[in-house]
Amino acid sequence: MTRGIAWIAFAALAAGSLVATTGTAPDVRFIPLSDAKPILDAAPDSVPEALRGLAGEELVAAWPKWAKQRDREIRARLEQGDEDTLTNFHLFGTSFTREPRVTLAMLDRARSKSNKALDPDLPLPAAVRKRAGDLVAAAAAPGQNERLQFAKRVLKQKGYPIGSEAARSGAVAYLLQHFEEVLREYDRYAELLKTAQLRNGRQQELVTRSTLFKTRGVSLDTSWQPNLALEQSLAALERKELLAPASVRRVAVIGPGLDFTDKEEGYDFYPPQTIQPFAVFDSLVRLGLSSADSLEITTLDLSERVNDHVNRARAGARSRAGYTIELTLDPAVHWLPDARAYWKDWGGRIGTAVTPVEPPAEVGHLEIRAIRVKPAVVLRILPRDLNVVLERLHFDEPRERFDLVIATNVLAYYDLFEQGLALQNIASMLRPGGFLLSNDALVEFRGSALHSAGSATISYSDRKEDADYIIWYQNVGPKP
Fold first, then answer.
1. Residue 351 is assigned to a structural domain of this protein
2. How many structural domains does the chain have?
3. Span 242-288, pLDDT tens digits
4. Domain span at 118
5. Do 151 and 139 form a contact (C-beta atoms < 8 A)?
6. How is residue 290 annotated by DSSP?
């Protein structure tokens, strides 16, 4: 694999991003009790049962045991998230069936009755059943299809090895059952948000939305739109002189996600991909906040699937293979000018436009473009296994910490207590003056070093739900 001295030197440099001046990479450590104590004191109603009423030596002894146990429990939620990903694949995939994608509008129309139940006599339930049968049949012989291999693995974990007709019938029934559970779950979410709006308006809705998935499985699905909101927030920080040109060198992206089969803009006719680390890289260089030659991005994720994906991309880059990202746009949606312009120009600072994968006829008319990311850029993305609720990277010097941390659609999977712990861990990894950008409204506990420095609301289309509210949290030291 020799590519010449210059290439080897660059690869070694990129592979060693996040290596401190001491020559060692930062360790992953659990949050110490001293940093958790302000959250324990500030949110007594949210403290876990196992820790309530403990103080002094009892709390000192219990804390590390609880933290390790809770870390295992949070990581186990990935399995439930995989079920949700499989349901998305079941409803929206096109690689295993000729049935049309099940859109959200179709679901709304089919559930127009007051009891929200699907009418079995309508075409939609029959299509959902047919899709389930097609998916199970395809997963039984997945070949090299990564998504079908994933489906087969999840079904086996749920007790359906699909090696026999009986197992395949059981797998179909399981898919249909979980589909119904997801519908009921989203009905509960909608009711919670409606109640929050009626009681306390916009602010309470934001708080409710920011902990909405605290009991749900941790899902990895993602799409491109939040990255526009991040770019516009970064531009606003620069205009306000809160971020200086060329000042962002180290960035962390928490929960970068995988575009597996998203309900809106993700499809399965191209390979699974991660978008956000490259989108943030592109935006920072585009805005002049970073140099492509010195920017280092670390992904922090507890998912083995995500970390393996990034590591495989890096392995390909070491062989000078690029990383291709496909971006789709539904022309039936009335996209706002900023969103369409962002989609059209995305990736120009990190790669070159290439011929995209041809969409299958089943998805209908679709705009699509593809960017092949330069190997040098891919090698500046480094994955680390880390549960941000309970773990942090330990830096010996404040100047070695991150200048910027990104966390979109991540912290809503946790309650207020765990969000407080996550903020403490993020603050410990941010340099003084550095920023966290998140689309979750987070409670600023007394003793936290992160404080809101502003926000931005960005809409993507004329649909009300196509928007993000990004809050900028700055590391300015503990609140007295």
1. no
2. 1
3. 999 999 999 999 999 888 876 566 789 999 999 999 999 999 999 99
4. 74-210
5. yes
6. S
